[in-house]
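Give me the fold.
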Amino acid sequence: MNIIIKNSAEVPIYEQIMNQIEAAILSGELKEGDLLPSVRGLARDLNVSVITTRKAYDCLEAEGFTINMMGKGSFVAPQNMELLRETRLMEIEKRLTDILDYGKPVGISGADLKNIIDVLIREE
């Protein structure tokens, strides 16, 4: 697993760490039971604060992606893909609602947003 931190990104560093570990789990790069790097080791490797790495690990555990075993480390938790999918769909719905609200004052319609999404899908 290779985590890349962008200091110039608007996303906080702990979220960058969290998102990349989460993506590795969802893609199958990290599998159930795999041991994550230690908090201190990862912080050292990424040249970030231990507090930042701990926050990322705590969030991953809170979201059910990892299990922390005191004195042993953090491990990839068994994944309920249907639950993860439902959680993601709810988050996408919230973000799309925010985007719709953001566009309304300047006359951006739902149809405009659908066109943008269609273009982005074709570009993949």
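The mean pLDDT is 92.
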